[in-house]
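Q: Convert this sequence to structure tokens.
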Amino acid sequence: MRQQMMDKPTLTTQPYEIRLQGHLDARWEDQFEGMNITLEENGNTLLSGPVADQSALHGLLKKVRDLGMLLISINQIPSLELMKQPNKEKRMNTSTKLIQIQDKKIALSTLWVFVMFCIAYADIIGFIEPRTLENIINGNTGFVLTPAIILVFSLLQAIPIAMILVSRWFRRNVNRWLNIIASVLTLLYVLGGGNWESVSYPVFAALEVIAMLGIIWLAWNWRNDEA
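A:
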């Protein structure tokens, strides 16, 4: 087997394989400079290497014809750059999806931060209103503040705080349903457990409702191809 070193293909060349019947005589190897010449065991000759353009390809075929050798096949083979392209595109698509996932998680987490601050400031400003703290201290809340009720309120208040981290940690399938469930529970708490007689509470409650509807919409429309 005799082999001539092949020039590296450039961006303007395209690799070809030309198979000829019979073995190419050594004295004709210089006629195919730049091509890789392989004498196959079945008696054929394989010419492989970069071809600049169609004109250069026709020139090679003319040399084959002049030698009187029978052309068996001619094939255009993928260049290294073309072979790498699908993997490159796959990596780019994967990176894009990862960015989309992170953007979705950041958006959900940010909305929960907004909800948390609205709930906190609704309570803080509510305490400033006349007789609010006095009524709580004296037990004039309209219901008995038992340890169980305080525990329930604490858990409901903790939902937005926990969801700030949950929205960033979990995968799509779990994440979207946790966000939807947490939003529904928090909506029920905001609408049913607030002091609507307060001047400030309806303002914060409206902001909280808008933010949680946004969370539900984002989670519900979190597409499968971003998983």
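Confidence is low (pLDDT under 50) at residues 1-11.
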